[in-house]
Amino acid sequence: YTSSTKLTVYGTERSILELGSSKTGNGEPMGAIHFVNDANADATLFDGDSKVIAVIQSETAQGGTLATDDSGGELWFYTKPEAGTIACNMAIMSDGNVGIGTTSPSERFIVKNASDGWSGAHFALEASGSTNKWDFVVGGGDDLYIAYNENASGKYQQWKADGTIGIMGNVGIGTTAPTRPLTVKSSASTEIAARF
Fold it and tell me: 20-51, pLDDT tens digit by residue?
């Protein structure tokens, strides 16, 4: 075995995957599984029109030298957009932490926004029977914004880093149908306790 050795598995029209090191010096991860579209233009460079379209790579996690350290392992997952350069979009660290949009997650699960606004990639929860969703975005000032369908209605919740909560819309306590910015209803009767 040498560093240039690789196993290539071919499909009917394009090579499917490559195991082992390949294309040394062109910038792509080494010692990885490469998923290849042989119809892409660039056979050598690891760039916007590279033949490599996805990668699963193992990384060594170590605190000392390879000779003395009981090293750990990480898995990095690379994908290539249709018109762009391949990049690592998910990582599983040796301690079990998972990062999406980051290769250095400090907690068990971290999703890093692509940008501050609703249009950038962010975390969302989608309904099972439709494409309607609740979006969670960390915006400017590190405030958390929660909205329905990327704030299509203009009504959102803002949880500020200093503990302040702002809600664009009506709030109900004891009712799910508030008619004012704040409606308080007694749970023991149908009477409205207060409206503001």
Answer: 544 443 445 555 777 777 666 655 555 555 67
Pairwise CA distance, residues 113 & 160, whole Å: 17
Q: Angle CA(108)–CA(109)–CA(112) in degrees, nearest 5?
A: 135
Residue written as token pair 């702002």: 166
Distance between CA atoms of residues 42 and 46, nearest Å:
8
pLDDT of residue 51: 72
Q: What is the CA radius of gyration of the chain?
A: 25
Q: Provide the b/e sequence for 59-92 (b: ≥16 CB within 10 Å).
A: beeeeeeeeeeeeeebebebebeeeeebebbbbb
Rounded to the nearest angstrom, the gap between the alpha carbon of residue 8 and the centroid of all alpha carbons in its chain is 30
User: pTM surpassing 0.85?
Assistant: no
Residue 33 has which token pair? 């599984």
Give the number of other Cβ atoms within 10 Å of residue 34's Cβ: 29
Question: What per-residue confidence (pLDDT) applies to 188?
Answer: 62
